[in-house]
Design goal:
Helix 2 runs parallel beside helix 4 and helix 7 packs across helix 8. The chain is globular, with a radius of gyration of 26 Å. It is an alpha/beta fold and about 290 residues long. The protein has nine helices and twelve strands. It starts with a helix and ends with a helix. Strands 2, 5, 6, 7, 8 and 12 form a six-stranded parallel β-sheet that branches. A two-stranded antiparallel sheet has the order 1-11. Strand 9, helix 8 and strand 10 form a beta-alpha-beta unit. The relative contact order is 0.15.
């Protein structure tokens, strides 16, 4: 009787061990997938690349200045891998219910309004039939209007050249502030030390409005996109930018974007800065990873 009891206990232990092993196997097989599914961001993955200056002078190349060859390699890579460039306004139309997005959408942006965006970048964009968003600093363009210098090293587009970019059909324009693109007393569009909310609100609204009016009067363009200078965002600025009528804004954090039906997903859109000296393949591996 004792032997029979011990035998039954051994069988019970073996059965329990087998059940535990099966449970562990099933947890390994299925639970991570469930967790992955539960935490996967909702929406359409839309990577955004941030360019600045495109200059052929090798002594100018740095984290914010790339060569025309590097830009061409990027666009060629995107075409070969079936990516479709879109405007930010296409995201706006999609979110607000009036449009659709193509397969593998991607947005190319250029900040500051360098003259070389017209002289060097635009012909390459046209060659590969790629769209781009260029954000203009009004005070830079105003100064260029008073000059006849067109240097690929340091010049910015004039009002006439802004219209030339717009009339190409593959460029949309954004508001990059009128005169807040600096890191002096005020850092970008940030709040200054000891500045009241009312003072800050008036300063930001006045700057935004001045650039909107300048671009409207001189270029016949009213941007729906606000691009934060240096990507410096504050809680008040988020509310003010929306109150000024912008339907999207661009930041500088290097993260993937997932576009859903929620209009809030259009603000502080993430972007990957394209530096000089990194191969197209290596850069795209980071920027296109959802």
């Amino acid at each position: 009787m004792l032997k029979k009891l011990i035998h039954h206990k051994k069988i019970l232990v073996i059965c329990i061990s087998m059940l535990c092993a099966i449970a562990i196997f099933l947890s390994i097989l299925f639970i991570p997938k469930a967790i992955k599914s539960a935490t996967k961001p909702e929406g359409i993955f839309v990577p955004i690349i941030m360019y600045h200056s495109v200059c052929s002078d090798t002594d100018m190349l740095c984290d914010y200045v790339i060569s025309p060859t590097e830009l061409e390699n990027d666009l060629k890579y995107l075409k070969e891998n079936n990516y479709n460039t879109i405007f930010v306004k296409d995201l706006i139309n999609f979110v607000h219910g009036g449009g659709s997005l193509p397969p593998n959408p991607i947005i190319l942006t250029f900040d500051d309004g360098f003259y070389n965006n017209l002289s060097n970048a635009l012909p390459i964009l046209e060659k590969y039939d790629c769209k781009a968003t260029i954000s203009i600093v009004g005070s830079y363009t105003e100064k260029s209007d008073q000059s006849t210098d067109n240097s690929q090293r340091y010049s910015y587009v004039t009002s006439e050249q802004v219209m030339q970019l717009h009339n190409s059909g593959i460029i949309e324009l954004g508001n990059h502030s009128f005169d807040m693109h600096n890191l002096d007393t005020r850092r970008g569009a940030g709040v200054m030390k000891n500045e009241s909310y009312e003072e800050y609100r008036n300063a930001l609204i006045n700057d935004i409005t001045k650039n909107q009016e300048y671009l409207s009067e001189n270029c016949n363009i009213v941007p729906a996109i606000y691009t934060y200078p240096y990507g410096i965002v504050s809680d008040p600025s988020k509310r003010i930018v929306k109150a000024c009528g912008f339907l999207a804004s661009l930041g500088v954090e290097e993260k993937p974007n997932y576009i859903s039906s929620d209009p809030d997903c259009l603000y502080q859109l993430y972007r990957y800065n394209r530096p000089h000296g990194t191969s197209t393949e290596k850069f795209m591996e980071k920027a296109l990873k959802g």
